[in-house]
Specification:
The structure holds 2 protein chains of 2 kinds. Chain A is α+β, with helices and mostly antiparallel strands. In chain A, 37% of the residues lie in helices and 27% in strands. Chain B has helices spanning 2-17, 33-41, 48-63, 69-87, 93-115, 126-149, 151-163. In chain B, helix 2 (33-41) runs antiparallel to helix 3 (48-63), helix 2 (33-41) runs parallel beside helix 4 (69-87) and helix 4 (69-87) packs antiparallel against helix 5. The chains are: A alpha+beta, B mainly alpha. Chains A and B meet through helix 1 of A and helix 3 and helix 4 of B.
């Protein structure tokens, strides 16, 4: 039964194909103005294929051209980005350099007599917890141990250890630091000692001394390290204790956390010669 | 041999019917359709479709502008009549007439459809269409009656009567 159905289907298909062949043969004979009907059929069938092929070819060409351009643009973009990054880095360096130069100029204005004998140095590392700061100048630049380090507004500390191209500076707030100072107005001698915090402890001021808040403490030069007359700190707290001296606290004039450039007095006759380690 | 002669006579007569000067209705008769009916009505049918295609191609060669649509139309007529012959178990002259009319209708319709994509199809007018169906059906009725009347036996009986 199935075989018969299959045979019948095959027979129908065969007849249909013969009909198609006959129609095509007839179309090959029927003539139009510009050719045969079969030719027009083939043209109608082939035209979309040719058009589609041309469109695909154009599309592929455009795509290739676009990809090439995109690739070139990406490369150009990467190159420009690189140049821009380099320019930004250069700009940042120049900005920093300009900033440092300005601070150096301020230092020269602040210490006109000392700059000629000093070395301007850039702050490389700063740690207020340990009270140490690394600067970009060493003994190759004439920096020696115990050389005073000044910032724009006053004393920052002294050189603790000097290498060939860098030095470690002991900030005046370090617990082991001490500076001989005097009250600017009255000339009372004292010692400003670091506390390990952010302020200084002013010692050896007699109880009868006239000390008020906001009085300025300057170096006295009695320690032989710092030149006299340089601002160190300003009194923030005065208290009479049980001892023979007043309990005085003072805040450093220099904002130690914002030092970028400092000046090291290398030819100051006070400091003792030699190097050491922090 | 007789079949070949009759075949040639059929197409010859058809050619005569369409010569200029013949009556307009004469061209409506499709004499070769009787061979389509014969292909289906004969006791042993073998490849009637492809014989009908050959018949149609001969028709195309003689009477059509292009070769092909006639083969399609005649073979389609054979298929339709074969389907009818399966469902109508009648071989009488009337059956011949009905088969001839149906075959004519199918031939005219399929030929028209086959010529449409070629741009050669004219208008299919109703009156000539049915005139052709009726006349060709009548032609097939005549042939069917002749075959059923068995004229050979009638001629032999007539001669025997005269000899007595």
């Amino acid at each position: 039964m199935a075989e018969g159905t299959s045979s019948s289907r095959f027979r129908r298909l065969r007849i249909f194909l013969v009909w198609m062949l006959l129609e095509i043969i007839a179309a090959g004979q029927a003539r139009l103005k510009e050719g045969t009907v079969l030719g027009s059929w083939l043209h109608v069938i082939a035209s979309p294929i040719v058009t589609a092929g041309r469109s695909v070819a154009h599309g592929a060409s455009d795509l290739s051209w676009g990809l090439g351009n995109t690739w070139r643009l990406v490369g150009e973009n990467a190159r420009l980005r690189g140049e821009l990054d380099a320019e930004r880095a250069q700009n940042l360096l120049l900005t920093n350099s300009l900033k440092l130069q300005r601070e150096a100029n301020h230092l020269q204005v602040a210490y006109p007599g000392l700059v000629a004998r000093g070395q301007v140095a850039v702050c490389l590392v700063r740690n207020l917890d340990t009270g140490l700061m690394k600067i970009g100048a060493g003994w190759l630049a004439g920096i020696r141990k115990d050389a005073p380090v000044l910032a724009e507004s006053g004393v920052a500390g002294r050189v603790l250890w000097s290498g060939p191209r860098s030095s470690w500076v002991e900030l005046l707030t370090r617990a082991t630091a001490a500076i001989a100072v005097e009250i600017e107005d009255s000339g009372i001698q004292a010692l400003a000692a670091g506390t390990g915090g952010s302020d200084l402890r002013i010692e050896y001021i007699p109880r009868r001394a006239h000390v008020l808040k906001a009085m300025l403490l300057v170096t006295s030069g009695a320690d032989g390290i710092y030149p006299p007359g340089i601002p160190v700190a300003r009194v923030t707290k005065v208290r009479e204790g049980s001892g023979p001296f007043l309990e005085v606290r003072a805040a450093p004039i220099v904002d130690l956390g914002r030092i970028h450039v400092c000046i090291v007095l290398k030819d100051w006759p006070g400091p003792r010669q030699g190097t050491g380690t922090p | 041999m007789i079949l070949v002669l009759l075949f040639l006579a059929t197409f010859g007569a058809q050619a005569v019917l369409v010569v200029p000067g013949a009556p307009a209705w004469a061209g409506s008769v499709l004499l070769p359709v009787v061979w389509i009916v014969w292909l289906v009505m004969r006791p042993r049918r073998q490849n009637p479709v492809f014989l009908a295609i050959a018949l149609g191609l001969v028709w195309d060669v003689l009477f059509e502008p292009v070769i092909g649509p006639g083969g399609i139309a005649f073979s389609a007529a054979v298929l339709v009549i074969s389907w009818l012959a399966v469902h109508v178990a009648d071989r009488s002259p009337l059956a011949w007439a009905g088969a001839g009319g149906a075959a004519t209708a199918v031939i005219l319709l399929v030929r028209h459809v086959a010529l449409l994509p070629l741009g050669l199809a004219g208008r299919l007018v109703v009156v000539p269409f049915f005139r052709s169906v009726l006349l060709t059906g009548g032609w097939c009725l005549v042939v069917g009656w002749i075959l059923s009347a068995d004229l050979g036996r009638w001629w032999r009986r007539l001669r025997t009567r005269r000899l007595r």
